[in-house]
Design brief:
The protein is 28% helix and 22% strand. The chain has 337 residues and is an alpha/beta fold. The protein has two domains: 7-145 and 315-328, NAD(P)-binding Rossmann-like Domain (Rossmann fold); 148-311, Dihydrodipicolinate Reductase, domain 2.
Length: 337
C-alpha cells in the first residue's frame, strides 16, 4: 500500500452504533477518506441527522453491489455479510466484517449458536491483533471479534499461549456485564428506559453466540472443550462498556508475581492492553480502544481476572480500525489514541 496515498473506505451498515463509531474514527484518520456510507433503512438521510455529535456530511445510500472503494467495513446484522462479502472479495477489495458470519470454522457450531446456515469455508482470518498480528498484516479480509469475546479472550489468552509456566487451566467461570448499546440500535421494549432503569439481568445463559468464538481462539471448541467453561452474560443500565469477571481454577497455585510477569511479557508489544495494579473500572476505558486487566487471588485458590473494554470501540469499531492499520501497513495506533 502506497503510504502517501489516502485509502478510500466505505461502511456498509453505518447507521448502527458500531457503524457510527467507525465513521467517527475514520473521520480523524489521516490516511483514510470515507467515500460512501450505506444503510438501507436510512437511505437518503444525512448522517449528521442521526448522529449530530459526529461531524460527517455524508448521506446514507442503499448498498447494491458497489465496489469503488479500497476497503469495505461491514457492520450488519448476522447473516447479511454472507451475501455481500463474496462479491467484495472477488472484486479484490480489502474487507473487515464486524458480524459473526465468518468467525467460526465449525459449521455445526455456527448453526447451533447463530441459528443459520453458511457454506463450508466461510471463515476469515480472526482479527485480534494481540494474538494474530502477523496473520492480520498479511490478510486481505478479516473477521472482527465480538465484544464479549474480546474482553474474555484477552483476559485468558496468556494462560493458554506461550507455554504459560505451571498455569494449566481446569475451569473458567465468567460473569460479564454489558451496557445497553451492545444490543444494537434497533428499538426493543425490554431495553427501554422504563424496563432497564434500576435493573440488571442475565440473558442467553449457556447459549451466547460468543462462546464458541472464545473457545476457538483459545485452541479449544464449544463442542469438545478442553476445560470447563461457564459464561453468564448480563446487561445493565449504562450505555457502553463490558466488565468481565473471570474466575479461573488452575491445576496448581502459582505465585502472583509470576502471573503478573507472564502477563506483562505476553502483552509487552500490545499498545492497547494495560495491566492495572488496582481494580479496573468501565469508566477507565470508556471511549477508548484499551482493554484493562486486573489480577487477584481468591482465598479458595482461584485466580480472578477482571477486564474492562468499551464494547463499541475495542469491542467493535476501534478494533476494526486497529486491524485496518495492520493490514494496510499503518502505525497500529493511528486514529485510536
Amino acid at each position: 500500500m502506497d503510504q502517501n496515498k489516502r485509502v478510500t473506505a466505505s461502511i456498509i451498515g453505518a447507521s448502527g452504533y458500531s457503524g457510527a463509531e467507525l465513521v467517527g474514527l475514520l473521520m480523524r484518520h489521516p490516511k483514510v477518506a470515507i467515500e460512501e456510507i450505506y444503510a438501507h433503512t436510512q437511505a437518503g438521510k444525512h448522517f449528521s441527522d442521526l448522529y449530530p455529535a459526529i461531524h460527517c456530511d455524508k448521506v446514507f445510500q442503499a448498498y447494491s453491489g458497489q465496489y469503488g472503494s479500497d476497503i469495505y467495513f461491514l457492520a450488519l446484522p448476522h447473516g447479511e455479510a454472507l451475501q455481500i462479502i463474496p462479491g467484495l472479495l472477488a472484486a479484490g477489495k480489502t474487507v473487515i466484517d464486524l458480524s459473526g458470519d465468518f468467525r467460526l470454522k465449525s459449521i455445526a457450531e455456527h448453526r447451533k449458536f447463530y441459528g443459520g446456515e453458511k457454506p463450508e469455508g466461510a471463515f476469515l482470518q480472526y482479527g485480534m491483533p494481540e494474538l494474530f498480528g502477523d496473520d492480520i498484516a498479511a490478510a486481505t479480509a478479516i473477521s472482527n471479534p465480538g465484544c464479549y469475546a474480546t474482553s474474555i479472550i484477552l483476559g485468558l489468552a496468556p494462560l493458554f499461549r506461550d507455554n504459560a509456566p505451571g498455569m494449566a487451566v481446569e475451569s473458567v467461570n465468567v460473569t460479564a456485564v454489558s451496557g445497553i448499546s451492545g444490543a444494537g440500535r434497533s428499538s426493543k421494549t425490554e431495553l427501554s428506559f422504563s424496563e432497564m432503569s434500576g435493573n440488571m439481568r442475565a440473558y442467553k445463559v449457556g447459549a451466547h453466540q460468543h462462546t464458541p468464538e472464545i473457545m476457538q481462539a483459545l485452541g479449544s471448541s464449544a463442542e469438545n472443550p478442553g476445560f470447563r467453561f461457564v459464561f453468564t452474560p448480563m446487561i445493565a443500565p449504562y450505555v457502553r462498556g463490558i466488565y468481565s469477571v473471570l474466575n479461573v481454577r488452575l491445576s496448581s497455585r502459582v505465585d502472583m508475581e509470576s502471573i503478573r510477569t507472564h502477563y506483562r511479557k505476553f502483552y509487552a508489544q500490545a499498545p492497547f492492553v494495560r495491566l492495572r495494579d488496582g481494580v479496573t473500572e468501565v469508566r477507565h476505558v470508556a471511549h477508548t480502544n484499551f482493554c484493562d486487566i486486573s489480577l487477584a487471588w481468591e482465598d479458595d485458590g482461584s485466580l480472578v481476572i477482571i477486564t474492562a473494554i468499551d464494547n463499541l470501540v475495542k469491542g467493535a469499531a476501534g478494533q476494526a480500525v486497529q486491524n485496518m492499520n495492520l493490514m494496510l501497513g499503518f502505525e497500529e495506533t493511528t486514529a485510536l489514541l
